[in-house]
Amino acid sequence: MASVRRHRLYADRAGAGAALASRLRAYDGRSDVVVLGLPRGGVPVAAAVARHLGAPLDVLVVRKLGLPRHPEVAMGAVAGAAGALEVVRNPEVLQHAHVTDDEFDRVLAAEVDELRRRESIYRGSRRSVSLQGRVVLVVDDGLATGATMRVAAHVIQRREPARIVLAAPVGPPDVCAALAGEADELVCPWQPPDFSAVGAAYRVFGQTSNDEVRRLLSAANPTDRPEP
């Protein structure tokens, strides 16, 4: 496998999405496929994938549940899928930190508020796409630790999809190997052994704005635009 220095860099997220779509041709034109982008950076990649495959595009917002006194440590996560909330707990962290039910519930409530706020920003009044019985392609702009993608897979599995495919343009080999067991299929075409950061795989890797996420979702679903 080529290293970051010798591999041809992706021009930008849209270019990475086009390259990723070429590895997902088995799903081209299928009516049972839906593409979910992980905001914000994963949405431009997912939009390109959805466009090339002729599939609908939606977002999956995942929020980490940090420990009350050490918020950088995840005791779980919450995500919204197909209009429902799903909570994933990390039992080892919860037990080690002696987190009470009240403490957990307070953190969860705050993160649910933020999740709903972001969903409203990204989707407006547009309804989320149903995942039940669908082939769900979950797309991010790259894998670092794989934590968000892992939570996404767990959440989507509870919505009874026909198949879950995790897809990202780049990620370290060990993370990709670990994630392969979390879904029916993992597609990560570039797995440099000297991986340093997702941004190192791109020539242009700026921050994705909320406005861009909204624009991409609206453009991908022109017949399902929210009322003004």
Describe the model.
Helix content is 36%, strand content 18%. It is an alpha/beta fold. The protein has two domains: 13-61 and 128-201, Rossmann fold (3-Layer(aba) Sandwich), CATH 3.40.50; 63-123, Ybab, Chain: A (2-Layer Sandwich), CATH 3.30.1310. α2 (42-53) runs parallel beside α7 (210-220). The chain is globular. The termini are far apart. The relative contact order is 0.21.
From the alpha carbons, calculate the radius of gyration and give it in angstroms: 17 Å
Q: Approximately how much beta-strand content do the residues carry?
A: 15-25%
Task: Provide the CATH top-level class of the largest domain.
Answer: Alpha Beta
Number of strands: 8
Number of helical elements = 7
Tally of structural domains: 2
Main sheet overview: 5 strands, parallel
H/E topology pattern: HEHEEEEHHEHEHEH
* CATH 2nd-level architecture of the largest domain: 3-Layer(aba) Sandwich
Average residue-wise pLDDT? 90
* Low-pLDDT ranges: 1-5
Q: Helical proportion?
A: 25-40%
Side by side, the strands of the main sheet go 2-1-6-7-8
Q: CATH topology of the largest domain, anyone?
A: Rossmann fold
- Estimate the global geometry from the Cα principal axes: globular
Name its key features.
228 residues, 18% strand, 5-stranded parallel β-sheet, disordered N terminus, Rossmann fold, 3-stranded antiparallel β-sheet, 8 strands, Ybab, Chain: A, single chain, alpha/beta
